[in-house]
Inverse folding.
């Protein structure tokens, strides 16, 4: 019940960003509350002054009595103040005060300056007798002196900083007396800041970073908490402490084990696995990372991400995936400068903070989908990250100090290389991951996907059985993709449906058990009454196969997944002249593409539909020109029998799936074949697909993506594939079993293409030409 009477000198503060006021008061004396008169709106009490009463009269006496104590106290106080940095004005002033002030005022003043808990301060306030006050304060002084000595011993070189810190804080505190809770809060905060400083000093950050951090922490100490910058600086320092400057996991690389692990996790993809093993082997021998960045390019769902994860596992490293799809701001990679409100470090630094080590495997997913915007080009920022010559001093804008990324293993994935900026592409080694064949998909499903799905749904192989023919059905009739992602989803749907049946079965078992137990005369009536509405569903339930394992056959498949989504439509669509099948490459894998043509009376115009790019339109014009110039040779005529194919005739060429933009030169041969069929009235063989670029003189030029295209044709059940002769070498990459199913026709000119596309050939008629010349 003892307090300090004080005179309010000044009140400053504001309500924003949060209410924070500073009260400047001058303490007068201690008082004691005798009686509380009223509490609201503010307390009013009758008080009694406790000290500084007979200041002048008792001075001599008290000094005599307390001479020894006060002398001792004075010595300690001087010792403490002299340990501080005298060049700071506040310290020099304090030193002068020690001599000028009456001795009995010293305990109060020094208690408020040195580091004491709130509890201790209140104890000193309660100590009305001067003797008691001296006795209580001396141990606190000694404690502070010892603490300071220790600090100076451990931090010899930074002595000055510490002194200043100790000296400045008290100064701030002399003037303000906050309420108790706030004081404690601040106390806590102060402790936190000291802890933070300790962490910074003990962390193994680089010299440069340490310097920046110490500077920031010094600023932090001087800053009132209510300043927005306080939180900003603090977050920054906390991030700096958390970053793995020197923390790394130990690589445990053993090529033989890596090979086994990769084989166990992934079926097929031999080329990719081989290249990854080579890469790892070089790493093992050379022990540094200055190699190219691997970039897996292929359609979705072919296991690019999961191979990345396996690499991390074989190396015993942490794995972190950074999705780059749609990133169009370079500060996403490199962070915002700290001057922005809400600034953050970029994804690289964030990733490092998340994994907590400086040598993780970072998977840069979808590098081909980086965007560009006014906020700069993220691809350019990635250049610095990926360049082994530069990334040992990668500077994030938020950190503003260099961080060494040279230990990080970067792997990139993309669907296509076409949209990767050339400079970025230059830093990476592209490894193509093609789509899977049906056989491979079946194996992948049975070795990996089905066991994984069963586990996820809490099922066992004793409860569900999916035979290989069913898997093949799912692959051919319910999915059309290069990878296995939608196959995986369909298998998930089957497992869900089976899980319901299994759970229902269990429920029914327990129900029948209970019914047997509670069977009795008296409940019979109830049963007959209640059973009626349920009976239908009951019998229906009983009709379902209750015995395990539940076999998924074609009918079950239809029940669960609905009617088949894709049917083999090839032969149907090739039942009239003017249709041919081309092969297209898309980032999602190869696809077969029907090209349709029709002719009508008109003025010789060519109409193209199906969202075609410029290159494709040019191919169409080329094809028409070549056919027109060779019309006589092939006996191609328009509707009225003229060799001028466009005379009074309009031609319409359509590439179905009009919602998808198509471009590229590889449809040239298909357009020629389609038009040849239209003008000759003959059907193109229904099992032939083709790809190749054409020239005006009828040559067939090589095209890309042969492997994906061939796989697509194989998926669609086609048998004969016409490819440019110069693409023959690409066939080696295709699995033997696929090659065995198909016949390849190598064509170097359009004559060969047409001969192969039509049953019985599309032969040139030399005799007719001679006849024509006579005319
Ligand atoms: P991507 O990154 O190429 O789009 P993911 O790596 O996400 O594809 O693969 C999709 C799923 O397919 C994963 O669950 C993966 O385990 C599985 N998967 C793909 N290829 C294989 C394979 N060859 N062997 C086993 N599982 C595979």
């Amino acid at each position: 019940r003892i307090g300090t009477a004080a005179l309010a000198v000044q009140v400053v503060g504001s309500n924003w960003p949060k209410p924070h006021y500073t009260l400047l008061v001058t303490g007068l004396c201690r008082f004691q509350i005798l009686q509380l008169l009223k509490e609201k709106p503010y307390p009013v009490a009758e008080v009694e002054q406790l000290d500084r009463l007979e200041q002048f009269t008792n001075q001599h006496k008290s000094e005599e009595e307390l001479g020894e104590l006060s002398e001792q106290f004075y010595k300690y106080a001087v010792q403490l103040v002299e340990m501080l940095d005298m060049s700071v004005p506040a310290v020099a002033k304090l030193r002068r005060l020690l001599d000028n002030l009456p001795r009995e005022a010293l305990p109060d003043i020094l208690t408020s300056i040195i580091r004491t808990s709130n509890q201790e301060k209140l104890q000193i306030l309660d100590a009305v007798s001067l003797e008691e006050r001296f006795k209580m304060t001396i141990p606190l002084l000694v404690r502070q002196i010892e603490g300071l000595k220790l600090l100076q011993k451990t931090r010899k070189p930074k002595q000055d900083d510490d002194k200043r810190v100790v000296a400045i804080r008290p100064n701030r505190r002399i003037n303000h007396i906050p309420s108790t809770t706030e004081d404690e809060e601040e106390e806590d905060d102060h402790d936190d800041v000291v802890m933070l400083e300790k962490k910074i000093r003990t962390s193994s950050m680089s010299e440069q970073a340490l310097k920046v951090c110490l500077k920031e922490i010094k600023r932090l100490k001087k800053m009132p908490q209510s300043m927005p910058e306080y939180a900003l600086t603090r977050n920054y320092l906390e991030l700096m402490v958390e970053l793995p400057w020197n923390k790394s996991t130990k690589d445990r690389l053993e090529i033989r084990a890596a090979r086994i692990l990769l084989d166990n996790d992934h079926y097929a993809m031999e080329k990719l696995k081989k290249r990854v093993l080579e890469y790892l082997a070089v790493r093992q021998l050379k022990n540094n990372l200055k190699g190219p960045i691997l970039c897996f390019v292929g359609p979705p769902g072919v296991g690019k991400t999961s191979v990345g994860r396996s690499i991390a596992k074989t190396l015993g490293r942490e794995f972190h995936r950074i999705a780059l799809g749609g990133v169009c701001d370079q500060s996403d990679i490199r962070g915002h400068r700290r001057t922005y409100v809400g600034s953050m470090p970029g994804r690289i630094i964030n990733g490092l903070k998340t994994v907590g080590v400086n040598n993780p495997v970072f998977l840069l997913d979808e590098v081909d989908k980086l965007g560009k915007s006014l906020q700069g080009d993220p691809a350019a920022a990635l250049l610095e990250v990926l360049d082994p010559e530069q990334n040992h001093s990668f500077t994030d804008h938020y950190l503003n100090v260099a961080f060494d990324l040279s230990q990080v293993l970067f792997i990139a994935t993309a669907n296509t290389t076409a949209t990767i900026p050339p400079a970025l592409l230059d830093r990476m080694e592209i490894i193509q991951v093609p789509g899977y064949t049906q056989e491979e998909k079946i194996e992948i499903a049975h070795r990996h996907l089905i066991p994984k799905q069963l586990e996820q749904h809490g099922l066992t192989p004793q409860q569900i059985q999916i035979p290989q023919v069913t898997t093949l059905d799912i692959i051919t009739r319910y999915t059309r993709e290069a990878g296995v992602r939608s196959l995986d989803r369909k298998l998930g749907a089957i497992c869900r449906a089976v899980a319901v049946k299994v759970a229902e079965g269990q429920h029914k078992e327990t129900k029948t058990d209970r019914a047997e137990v509670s069977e009795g005369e008296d409940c019979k009536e109830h049963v007959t009454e209640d059973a009626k509405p349920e009976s239908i569903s009951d019998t229906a339930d009983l009709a379902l196969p209750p015995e395990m394992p539940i076999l998924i056959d074609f009918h079950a498949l239809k029940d669960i997944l609905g009617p088949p989504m894709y049917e083999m439509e090839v032969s149907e669509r090739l039942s009239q002249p003017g249709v041919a099948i081309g092969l297209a490459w898309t980032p999602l894998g190869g696809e077969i593409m029907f090209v349709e043509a029709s002719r009508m009376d008109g003025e010789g115009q060519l109409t193209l539909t199906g969202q075609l790019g410029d290159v494709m339109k040019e191919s169409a014009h080329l094809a028409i020109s070549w056919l027109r110039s060779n019309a006589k040779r092939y006996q191609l005529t328009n509707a009225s029998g003229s060799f001028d194919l466009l005379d009074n005739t309009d031609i319409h060429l359509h590439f179905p799936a009009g919602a998808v933009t198509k471009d590229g030169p590889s449809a040239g041969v298909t357009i020629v074949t389609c038009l040849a069929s239209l003008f000759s009235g003959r059907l193109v063989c229904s099992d032939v697909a083709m790809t190749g670029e054409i020239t005006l003189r009828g040559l067939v030029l090589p095209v890309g993506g042969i492997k994906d295209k061939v796989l697509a044709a194989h998926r669609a059940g086609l048998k004969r594939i016409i490819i440019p002769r110069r693409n023959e070498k690409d066939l080696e990459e295709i699995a033997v079993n696929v090659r065995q199913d198909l016949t390849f026709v190598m064509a170097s000119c359009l004559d060969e293409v047409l001969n192969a596309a039509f049953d019985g050939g599309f032969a040139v008629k030399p005799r007719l030409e001679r006849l024509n010349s006579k005319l």
